[in-house]
Amino acid sequence: SAHPFAFGYADYTPSAYDVLQENDFLVGLLPKGATGYELNRETGEFSTYLNGSCSFSVENSYQLNYNSTIEGLISKDRLKNLKGVSVKVLLPWLNIAEVVREGDELHFSVGIASANFPVENFEECPQCGCGLDCNKCDVYHSSF
Predict the structure, then answer these.
(1) pTM, whole model, 2 decimals?
(2) Annotation: CATH topology of 16-142
């Protein structure tokens, strides 16, 4: 009898980033340093764990905040019932409820509003604190 959590590879456990890619998402939806996850492959229910809460800004236009635990339902091209991720776009922090991939765009829904971003924005995993600008910081410091 097949176990719903079993894989064909005895010693290979996919990472949280692998699970994103299996569902047609890019690894950059999750910051670097995920310490583990739980996934029910039959229902898509998941929990992902980070070392602590994590915050950074993207494109100098909005700020993302991740709690140490992120939960939701994952399926191909869709993350829904999300808990633990919020975005600050001008004024208040808004909880991101759903992410849907439509071709080359990711559609983020915060309930009353939504925004689209090109998938290229999420090809790399951001780092807590500096987001995707970390290398620029490193280059700057190494020039002394």
Answers:
(1) 0.69
(2) at5g01610, DUF538 DOMAIN (2.30.240)
